[in-house]
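From the thread on structure requests for the teaching lab: each student submitted one protein with a one-line request. Submission from student K.M.:

"Model Dihydrolipoyl dehydrogenase from Dokdonella ginsengisoli, tokens only."
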Amino acid sequence: MDQFDVIVIGGGPAGYHAAIRAAQLGLKTACVDAWTGADGKAALGGTCLNVGCIPSKALLDSSKQFWNLTQHFDVHGITTKDAAIDVKTMIGRKDKIVKQFTGGVAMLFKGNKITSFLGTGKLLQGRQVEITAPDGGKQTIAGTNVVIATGSAPIELPFAKFDGKHIVDNAGALAFDAVPKRLGVIGAGVIGLELGSVWRRLGSEVTIIEALPDFLGAADADVAKVALKELNKQGLKIELGAKLSKAEIKKNEVHLTYAGKDGEKQLVVDKLLVAVGRRAYTDGLLGDGTGVKLDERGRVVVDEHCWTGAEGVWAVGDCVRGPMLAHKGFEEGIMVAELIAGKAGHVNLDTIPWVIYTEPEIAWVGQTEKQLKDAGIPYKTGSFPFAAIGRAVAMNEPAGMVKMIAHAETDRILGVHLVGANVSELVAECVVAMEFKGSSEDLARIVHAHPTLSEAVHEAALAVDKRAIHKMN
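Reply posted by the TA:
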């Protein structure tokens, strides 16, 4: 039986980061992953690289280019006639990018001398891992340490089961061979909004049905309000407080029944994307007597350092508590590898940034105003609109704002909430400030280049103390 210092079960963001860092630290490392590409060969990178973060951003960029061409280029004096999108070419570009990055992970594994096994991994007693290959063959390897990084899977509704053609998950919505005339989306979360935006920009009539009464309840209310207004302008129809009860496929259409604010409603679409969330993927993961426990949601139970409580067994990424975000998994994988090697390691869940890559983008870090109010924490806020930022206006992207929240007594930054162009990049400055326990005054006194979008963060920090320069306080 092959013996390793570290065995990682799962080659997604959390898993491959754990494997690479462990190998960098001189540990004999193996990674077990079952994902294969269209060619049947191993495709490391998990959901993120194969059917998540990277392919969705490729399609978002393609659809943004087309949207700008048909909707916004005229203000620059650029005119076009009979603009068209070749969906096959767009999907091909996305697939090429995916292959580039999954192949890149394979090269990193080879360069770091990581042994890769294609198949599903099952944890047995004594930190042994049983590997089931695609052809059903089995083998067992053993490790001094095992890192569980099995990720997550889309949640399927019992009355709207995936068929891969009419009713699809995120993977299906990334591979349409034509623009659906009518697209229904269940769930106004990250996946629903991003993929709904892709196909709306290309001409689809998109209706998003969200069961919760508030739009983006996890985001700050002020930012969510601005985002909803802008998405509605783009033609996304978003129905809140609407609960789907039935989805029937009839004559190549999907007939939906849902309860809205005004009673029962009917909707007919050509494609239905179900994006109501994801669940930890731990099916068949644990053998008897491993000492590893699952919680009521199927997640692996871990402590603040991702240790399961069983000797030498750790778990990271989407299959444990905390936000299901690739970058959170990155850092947990690295942390665990460093802890195994006897080094220090820590991940601060309180300063993990969230990003939704719609147009405009939505991002935040830290607490919302409502959370602070409910907790009775004294706070003060400052906000600034992109419409008063020269660079944003010059880019023809003036929509959005930056809102900063600081402690009323200490001025320590408690949260920053952004909606606008490129806020996925701007939020990083705010994360750094919060990690170093910075105050709004710290950001207010830092010189920001002009003209840049980052000036909105600077002015929001100034506005916390009611001294923003380019707006009335």
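TA comment: The mean pLDDT is 97. Residues 167-276 form a domain with the FAD/NAD(P)-binding domain fold (CATH 3.50.50.60).
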